[in-house]
Amino acid sequence: HGMLFFDGEKMHALNPRGKARTGLSAFEEAEKLLKKAKVTSCILGAEIYVKDDASKAHPVQQVVRVLRSPLSKEQLEKLGLAVFDVIEVDEKPVSETAKVFELLKKWFGKGEHVHPVENHKTDKIEEVMEYFTDWVVGEGAEGVVVRHDQAGWYKIKLRHNLDVAIIGYSEGTDARKGMLHDLLVAVMRADGTFHEFTRVGGGFTEDERKAMAAELKKRIV
Description:
By secondary structure, the protein is α+β, with helices and mostly antiparallel strands. Helices cover 29% and strands 32% of the residues.
């Protein structure tokens, strides 16, 4: 995902790491649609994905692989652009959720490579859970985003519980010396060997970080 900048002529994308992209078929289509709508400039939030009708889940690695070293022009044309936010239009900020999706539908509703993200308006929590069940549980999407003008944004994903073994840890520096920075954890294979899994650095209080660092220090081997 990233931000799209349209200056009245060209569309440029910037991802969170500062990587700029331009020239994709989806961008060219977006440029035509925005010119047709007489938009002089705008900043959008969007996600590039690999178009695959069989699944709503598009692993980011798959997208990055195509962007970094496309095998053909046809492969690049399989990249779609799902637009989910209008941050600014004609140098004026857009804050109302209803206005955002009204503009996205107006600009990109008939697009082929570029389109608004699938969205529904609701004021019932039960309906949010129905969409979650359909899209995430039923169709394999990563999650749903709930947006509210006063309450902000929430991303809802499935929760997975895993039992893992701590195989390493790192300690904070300077003012956070003597406190846990993060854990390195592993899962155990059937043959009893450990398979390194991931780092865990969030969700601990400062007291927990101090206690865990003190306990883990005794167990270094």
